[in-house]
Amino acid sequence: MVEVLPIDEVIPELRAQVRARGCVVLQAPPGAGKTSRVPLALLDDVTGKIVMLEPRRLAARAAAERLAQQLGETVGQTVGYRMRGESVAGARIEVVTEGILTRMLQSDPELPGVGAVIFDEFHERSLNADLGLALVLEVRAALRDDLALVVMSATLDAGPVAELIGAPVVTSQGRAYPVETRWLDRPLRKDVRFEAALADLVVQAVGETSGGVLVFLPGEGEIRRVQGVLGGRLPEDCKVRPLYGALPFKDQRAAIAPMVAGRKVVLATSIAETSLTIEDIRVVVDGGRARRARFDPGSGMSRLVTERVTRAEAMQRAGRAGRVAEGVAYKLWSRGEDGALAAYPPAEIEAADLTGLALELAAWGSGDLPFLTPPPEGALSEARSLLEGLGALRDGRITDHGRKLATLPLHPRLAHMLVRGGKPAAGLAALLAERDVLQGGPVDYAERLKALAGASGASTPRQGALARVRAEAKRLAKMVPDRPALPPEEYAAFAYPDRIAQRRPGGAPRFILSGGKGAVMEAADPLAGQAFLVVTDTDGNPREARIRTAFAISETQLREIFADRIDALHLCHWSRRDGRVLAREQDRLGALILSDKRWNNAPDEAVATAMLEGIREIGLKLSPAAERFRARVALVRAQDDTLPAMDDTALLATLEDWLLPYLTGVHSTADWKAFDKLPALRARLTWAQMQAVDTAAPAAFTTPLGRQVPIDYDGDAPQITLRLQEMFGTTRHPTVAGRPLRVTFLSPGHKPIQTTMDVPGFWASSYADVRKDMRGQYPKHPWPEDPTQADPTLRAKPRK
């Protein structure tokens, strides 16, 4: 008897839309039977092979086996699967991991022999799925209007997808079996450890229900810790099975296989959210956390962050409990907290490292694809910059080297390392592509290579991961030619040219990376004292990343590897600390300074240009004469705006224009303070402008004795200061630029005794009182009754 699934009700409509429109979006809750039914239902409606994408290897195998089982066949007859490093041919249906479709399209965009492409679990919005959909849409528009397209999801916001591909939405309302949701009575206290709280909830679920239990955790580490906390707390017939991507395949199969007797508790990551059906699961316990990769384009590093699940993810997880029978979903949060969850997780394209995507777009020959979510321009620009550095792109176009990298099943960094290093680099490439094979290992990556070679060490290797690495290394070695072997740190430098680390001065192990970012290491680590490292992994902190794994490398090796990237620079720069221009000769690798010595014969112009930076920091520091000059210019400029502005802002903004030619010999703060700025300021004016200034605002007033007294233009009126006796005989008040001078009279002892802007008026009024006071103090100096009739003088009365 054929099992009836909720999806069966809409299969006729789905088939009709595929025949009529060639494309459709299928929205159905978890457990409705999308993966199991749709490919088989389309066999009679599609000419050619049906390719169905799955987000994970385990799900792809399981889906292929389930489809073949419904046909009464084994995998390899009607149904096959293909993933990196493994494939079983199928005559009509091929279940593939998402990256495989991209390779198929890049090899031949027409997809010969393929009649339909099905995107399963599209709600996960992986980078490969988004790229694959964009490529398929372009192929359908340009080459294959007969290519059928089905996008399926349980929790996807279907509207935008349907609009993008121009397809109707077919919706299945039913779930295979109902699921009861049980929340916490109140939010979890902050002082309660996550693993302990989740283990308590698992024990409660096991005690209140029957059947298998599926527990969702963010990662392998949490799985191991919860497994430890559960030890001895579950009934004897309960078997705890971990399930995560890096687990050996036989252990993954053990987790999804039905129990012959007793119950199982599966501790799983998000790998179990997909179309994968885990036999005999009746209960879900959701820890409410998800781990996502976040890429910082500024640092060029990714880091994993643990976040709250979204409502869509929680719905997908709860649906696992209703796959084979009525179920119960326990949630490690309260009903009130549920409403505050975000609706959907971010698409991977919004937060991931886009280097692989940028390479695929370059290989395709167009970046203008119909993406559901366009890639962020900043992250895409950084990715292209890295590819330029790896030689994969030149002027934005893919190179022959880049095409080689695109064909390899590795991140472009590691593909570049493999192409340059050949077969001897295959082991390290496979090792770097895998999660860390050592549990709590040291920073020195050489320890991982020892583990790969079978040598024992202080850290315990993950044997399953090592087996996968060895198998992958053999496969990668077949893809590249043989070359002479190099030290592993040199291979790593090929892959991470932007992560060469140089130790900073000081006691703490702090490093500067060649890409410009900072990094730190535990002081007790054996690599902490190394001058140079190749950093292979960090925690991704954008401010100062913690180094997780690295190789030690020598300066000699770096100079040989990066001979074409090391810049021999002659630099002059202002040192705020030293208060002077420093001239240095340096060899630089990105942000690293490999050598640094004094540049003894630095050109005057280079020193002067660097000095300008110091002047902008120090300030103009004009002499009194220079201040008077620019005040004169400002006075005249008020009537003639053709004269240049000489305020601080204008002068500092144009230092290169008026000051640079005069700075020879000026190297320091002391030199600048002693430097006469007046000639440079005067040179800003043409001869005609200088004549106009001298006429309208002369630098000095000529006294009746013919002496030049500087005019101060800095106040609200131009002013002079001189001895009273020097102005005897003056009957008209002196003026400048049509404005009266403010005159300050001094006593013979050079003390101010009167300020006036009307000298004739002073003679006629206040002078008598001044004369009366001053005659007694300075009897040797003349104090005539009528100063207008006296001769100007600076002398005392002649002796009798």
From TrEMBL:
GO molecular function: ATP binding; helicase activity; hydrolase activity; nucleic acid binding
UniProt keyword list: ATP-binding, Helicase, Hydrolase, Nucleotide-binding
Residue span(s) of domain Helicase ATP-binding: 15-157
Annotated stretches, region: Disordered: 775-800
Pfam families tied to this protein: DEAD, Helicase_C, HrpB_C
Database matches in InterPro entries: DEAD/DEAH_box_helicase_dom, Helicase-assoc_dom, Helicase_ATP-bd, Helicase_C-like, HrpB, HrpB_DEXH, P-loop_NTPase, RNA_helicase_ATP-dep_HrpB_C
Residue intervals passing through the bilayer: none
Gene3D superfamilies on file: 1.20.120.1080, P-loop containing nucleotide triphosphate hydrolases
Domain Helicase C-terminal positions: 197-365
NCBIfam families: DEAH_box_HrpB (TIGR01970)
Stated name of the protein: ATP-dependent helicase HrpB
Biological source species: Thalassorhabdomicrobium marinisediminis
